[in-house]
Design a protein that fits this description.
Elements lengths: L14 H17 L14 H11 L5 E5 L7 E6 L9 E6 L19 E2 L2 E3 L7 H16 L8 E6 L10 H7 L1 H4 L3 E4 L6 E3 L2 E10 L1 E10 L3 E2 L9 H14 L8 H9 L4 H7 L2 H8 L4 H11 L2 E9 L5 E2 L2 E10 L5 H12 L6 E9 L2 E2 L5 H13 L4 E7 L5 H5 L4 E4 L9 H7 L6 E3 H19 L1
């Protein structure tokens, strides 16, 4: 395989050839290992920005890379529309991935191996599959000589996995003209939910907010050989973690959740339980684990203590422990609401804890009554006959939020094959043995090409 995948002739535009292109492109992006651990010098997304630039260069289109920090590059490509008044569409995929614990994987997480029709590797479903499929769809459109009324933009963006400071956030702040668009399609999406009369295809129209805090738990240093009645910050921190983990905020049934449940073709009693605060907790135990986690996250403010740092030496009682807590907020919640919840969770330990705010990014959503929704409905009806779209929200943050805040209608949507069930899909996000089948890659490439033609022509 060549170091940089070569694009096909515009005359070849077959699905089989596109499948090969997107498969090879995905393998290269996985092998680039653009791991984002949250540090400013991590990510190295320029590796993948360069690969995508090489892939798209033969189209003769406008390509521009933006690099706010060394190695943190985002690539923008454009097919300019013929009518300045026509709507514009952006296909946006990120190029960074989250860290892995390699020994837990059955295959090399950065090998990009193709095994039994599946591409394995970190980012295979989050979201290098969509990033690659979007690039191939964009290339096919460009090479076909397509001239849309509205402008089509492709954005391969850096730093999505660490709140977007050097990617979408930076671009919207410093290079808005380069990325401004009426409509945006990004992650996640594409899983199928079985209905009694056809597939239901969730479209992510909104997302929960992010409220990250750092908790500093103070103690008094001393000799580890004499622990009796000492003020050990680690012991106190263990209690803090236990209280946060066991804290149960009230169930909240908001409009976005009701719309999702209304659209799902489930048993009427199940649907009734999932919008009833008095019955929802009991219903969780009757659902598959991945589905139950999604249901719980979409109806609760969640608190997850995920990082701990403290102690200097085995024989020194620690005088400070630092805890990083990932809090995800529901529509309409503000920082004051979360601070009150933290106070309630910590109880009498609250005076022992200093709370530092790391990120406060409220929930966002886009409307459903839009030309983008109508276009997606037409396109998916052709690709998956008998299917229907249903709106949903995601518990995690995506770059869509930055574009919603500047006025763009932004959805998360792809199209995966029947081979990837919802439970498997949810388990692979930031999990082990991430992989995607080549049929899903073909479907996504076909989807994005058809969407652009339908919406912008």
């Amino acid at each position: 395989m060549s170091e940089t995948p070569s694009a096909s002739d515009s005359s070849s535009g077959s699905s089989d050839l596109a499948t090969g292109e997107v498969t090879e492109l995905l393998q290269q992006l996985i092998r680039n290992g653009c791991v984002n651990d949250g540090g400013e010098a991590s990510g190295h997304e320029t590796r993948s920005s360069d690969v995508l630039r090489s892939y798209l260069e033969g189209t003769g289109l406008d390509l521009e890379a933006y690099e706010p920090r060394p190695g943190r590059s985002s690539l923008v490509a454009r097919i300019e529309g013929t009518d300045p008044q026509a709507p514009s569409l952006m296909l946006m995929g990120h190029t960074d991935v989250v860290p892995v614990t390699e020994e837990r994987w059955r295959r090399d997480p950065f090998g990009g191996e193709l095994v039994d029709g599946e591409v394995w590797g970190r980012g295979a479903v989050d979201m290098l599959d969509l990033t690659s499929s979007m690039a191939v769809a964009f290339s096919r459109l460009a090479r076909s000589g397509w001239r849309p009324r509205g402008t089509l933009i492709y954005l391969a963006v850096a730093d999505e996995e660490a709140l977007g400071a050097w990617g979408a956030d930076w671009l919207c702040t410093h290079q808005l003209d380069a990325v401004r668009s009426d409509y945006v399609v990004t992650e996640p999406g594409g899983t199928r939910i079985a209905g009694r009369d056809g597939w239901r295809l969730p479209v992510v129209t909104g997302e929960k907010g992010t409220y990250w805090v750092r908790l500093r738990v103070a103690g008094t240093p001393g000799h580890g050989s004499q622990p009796w009645h000492t003020d050990n910050a680690l012991v106190t921190a263990a209690q803090v973690v236990s209280r946060i983990a066991s804290y149960q905020p009230a169930t909240q049934i908001h409009d976005a959740w009701r719309r999702f449940v209304d659209g799902a073709d489930w048993d009427p009693d199940v649907k009734a339980a999932l919008v009833d605060p008095a019955r929802l907790e009991a219903a969780l135990g009757q659902l598959p684990l991945g589905t139950a986690r999604m249901v719980h996250a979409c109806t609760h403010t969640t608190f997850s203590p995920n990082v701990v740092q403290g102690g200097k030496k085995t024989n020194v009682i620690p005088d400070e422990v630092v805890l990083d807590v990932d809090i995800r907020t529901l529509p309409g919640q503000q920082g004051t609401d979360i601070q009150a919840m933290l106070d309630e969770a910590l109880g009498d330990l609250r005076p022992r804890v200093t709370v530092e705010l790391v990120a406060d990014d409220p929930s966002t959503a886009s409307p459903l009554d839009t030309p983008l929704w109508d276009s997606l409905a037409r396109v998916t009806a052709g690709l998956v006959p008998g299917s229907a779209l249903i709106p949903t929200m995601t518990a995690g943050a995506t770059d869509a939020r930055f574009f919603r805040r500047i006025g763009a209608t932004s959805y998360g949507f792809g199209l995966l094959s029947e081979k990837i069930g919802f439970e498997q899909y949810m388990g692979m996000f930031h999990g082990d043995d991430e992989r995607v089948d080549v049929e899903s890659l073909r479907l996504c490439a076909d989807l994005y090409e058809a969407l652009a033609r339908d919406l912008l022509s």
